[in-house]
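ok trying again, last paste got cut off:
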Amino acid sequence: MSDVNLADAEVVDDHVHPYRVADLVARDPGGFEARCTFLGTCFMSSSRSDPKTWARVEELSDSSIFALTLRRWLAGYLGCEPTKEAVAAARAEALRADAVGYTTGLLADEHVVGVLSDEGYPQPPIPAEEFEKDLGVAVHRVARLEPWIVEHREEPFDDLVSAVEEEVEKAAGDPRCVAFKSIIAYRTGLDVGDPAPGEAADAHARWRRDGWRESREHAKPVRDFLLRRTMAAAKRNDRPVHIHCGGGDADIQLGHARPQDLFPLLVDHAHQPIVLIHGGDPWVPEAGYVASVLPNVYLDLSALIPWAWSWIDWVLETLIGMVPTTKLLYGSDEASEPEVFWVGARIARKALDRTLAGMVDRDLLTPDEAEKVGRDVLAGNTQRLHGISAAPS
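nice, full thing came through this time. structure:
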C-alpha cells in the first residue's frame, strides 16, 4: 500500500466542550475510562440519566473496544502497565502533579494546536479565555443559541426576540467568536418551520402557560423562529452556523434528528456556510448527499471520531468520495476528559493515512493530493471556514 504520512500534521479540533481544571482533578480517577466512552459522555450530558445506573456504565466500559484501545495507548504514553488500575493510577498522579502540563503534553503529542469550544455545555458557560489557560492552545468560541432562549424566555415575545438578537450581535463583536450553534435537534427537532412573527408570538404565550415544557406544539414555533433570526444575524456578521445533526444523548428528539429533516432549512439558507455537527451520524450517507448537493453545507466528523472508530475508514471512504473534501472538518466532541482530544486526533490521523493511501493505490489521488486532503481535514478546512489562525493568543 502507498504511504500517506500525516504523523506531523497539525490538528484543529472544530467541536469540543470546555472544562475547569479543578473539576477535572476532583473527579473519581477510577471512572475516567467510562467517562471517555460515548456512553459515559452521554450519561454525563443527559438530563435523563439516572445516577443509579452509573455503575453499569463503568462495568460496560470493560467490554468497550474504544476503552480497551484507549487504555493500551495511554499506558504507552504514560509508561505504565496496560491495566485499568495502573493506567488510572498513573493518570491520576500526572493530573495531581500538573493538570495543565499533562493536558498540554497530550495535545502536543498529537499536534493539536487549536480548538473551537462550544460554550453551551456545561452550564454556566466557561469563557474561552479561561479554557485556553487550562488547555495551552488557542481556544475559539462557538456561541450557542439555546441558553439565550432560556435566559430571556420569561420576557414578552418581542423582548425575547430583541434580547436574542442583541446576544448574537454582542457575541459577533467578540473576536474569539468564530461561529454560532444550535442544538434544536435536542429540543423540538430539525424539521424547522418558518412561522410568521404572530404565529411564533401566539406559540410563546402557549409555551408560557404550559410551564415551558419542550413540546412541538408550543415550543417548536418559537424555537424555529428564533433559529431563523439567529441564522440571518450570523450571515450579516459573516459567521458560520453549526447545527447538531444526528444522534446524541438520551435527550435527543431522535425521530426528528436526521439530515433529511434539516434539508428545507438548508435550502432556504443556501448562501451561508452551515456545519452539520456529527456528520448526521448514524445517517452518514444521507448527510453526505446533502453536502454534495448544497455548496455551503459542511460536515463535522466529531462523535464519528473517536467513538465510531471501528467504521471510520468506511465513513471517510464514503464522504471523501461524495463530498468536496474542503467541506470535511475534523472534530472530537470532547466533553469529559482531555484524553479524548488525544485519542480522537490519533484515530483520525491513522484512519486518514489508511483511507487516503488506498485511494492513491487505486489511482484516485496522487500522493501529494492525498496528503493535502488529510491536512485540510485535520486543520486547514476549519481554519479557512472560520477565518482563524491556530497560533495561541
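cool. Strands lie at 11-16, 112-118, 138-144, 177-182, 241-244, 274-277, 297-300, 302-303, 328-329. The chain has one domain: 11-24+99-386.
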